[in-house]
Amino acid sequence: MKERKHFKKIVVIERGKVANRILKACKELGIYTIAVYSEHDVHSSHHLKADKAYVIGKGRKPFQACFDIEEMIEIAKHEQADAIHPGYGIWMENLKLSKRCREEDIVFIGPRPTHIELFNDKAAARATAATLGIPLVPDTPTLVQSIQEAITFGEETGYPIIIKTTTGYKEKSIQVVRSKEELLEIAKHPYSGSKMYVTKYLERPKHITIQVLADRYGEFTYFLGEESSYLLLSTTLIHQMGQSAIRLMKAIDCHHIGIIEFLVTPDYRYYFSEINTRVQFASRRKSGVDIIRSQIRLAEGFPLVSMDGNPSVKTVL
Question: What pTM did the predictor assign?
């Protein structure tokens, strides 16, 4: 049986509206909260809503004051906090903070260090997706040496394509090419002999995000990101992207929350774009899921399973 532990204390290192959302979720769950803030945040409401608050980075400039990881760790240790909630964005992706929490046996309510490294390495994430058969935007894996190679790529994948030369004038270094004739015209320019990256150009793609939640027991669920939920997409397409997102999360053994981004063309073909650790806090409006409470419950080790045995984030709330 995997360990489950109700958190008693959480240090919230976010600021502003996001911190207020986290503090509200903690209060609903009966968790004591400790906020941190700089001298420049005295008029911010988040530190007033926490059960306790500490000023950090005294005497420093605003940006420097809020980035002292060791001071945050010391506060968590002094308060005997169970966990640190990084909010989202820059702190959720902070490798050093994630590592320091593990070293001090403090739960980091976010991805493990290995996952942060993978998410930050776009090439590695793309390679993982490729091994799983998840559609990728076609490109040349290595630099091509000649226009003829670019022509061959264009004929195999279909135009338009993008060529990115490693040398040449800035305004000519990246070009959308719509035919073989345009490539032959490019071959007449002085920089045409330089090496090139070549990739398929997607016309008017839609950017789609899939939010995936995963527990320690092998259960996964997904829903459309907030901005994607307003787009007209077929149930079949959403299901295909959702299953691709889950396969990717399974492959990297991620027991947390992740956002997998896709590009969808007007003819409804989808392509993997990237995976990241950021959380869409506005997701509840369309999905009915309180993502912050789900974050906390998953970090505590609770399962993502409903009464009837089907995966459901609503049971985590």
Answer: 0.82
